[in-house]
Amino acid sequence: MSDPRGPIVTPAATVSVGPEGFHRVRITGTGKLSLEDARAMHAARLSLGAEGRGLLVLVDIATRPSPSREAGEFTRRPEVQRLTRAMALLTPSVITRHLGNAFLLAMRPQYPTRIFTDEAAALGWLETFADAVATQGEH
């Protein structure tokens, strides 16, 4: 179920639809994520079919990004938040998991979010929300 349009590369991330149908965001930039970075990732998700739908998202934060205040404010907007039903953050180690908590503090998501060090566990957790997404699309 990968998207035929392939991955979309922004200055700070690569955004794609994985084989399971989840949006995958791999942060490639290091340091601060700017408002422009957040807008570009949002636009990429919209172009991959996220408009008006709460999708499941896996975000790889191995590069330890730190959202700017403006980027955090942007991600808290209702029109941005409603694109996501649940989000799993993937980080390479338990130590960097603490940095993931800082990422969450900046974003303050209004949807279920967890941090994982194992991709299979993250995908399994997201899968628990798949029925809710399918049902949401039927209304």
Strand proportion, as a percent range, falls in 15-25%
Shape: globular
CATH architecture: 2-Layer Sandwich
- The secondary-structure class comes to alpha/beta
User: Any idea what the CATH superfamily is called?
Assistant: STAS domain
**H/E element order:** EEEEHEEHHEHEHH
Attribute tags:
139 residues, alpha/beta, disordered C terminus, six-stranded mixed sheet, 24% strand, 8 strands, globular, Transcription Regulator spoIIAA, two-stranded parallel sheet
Q: Can you describe this structure?
A:
With 139 residues, the protein is of the alpha/beta class. 42% of the residues lie in helices and 24% in strands. The strands form two sheets. The protein has a six-stranded mixed sheet, sandwiched between helices. It has a two-stranded parallel ribbon with strand order 4-6. The longest helix is centred in the first third of the chain and has 16 residues, at 35-50. Residues 135-139 have low confidence and may be disordered.
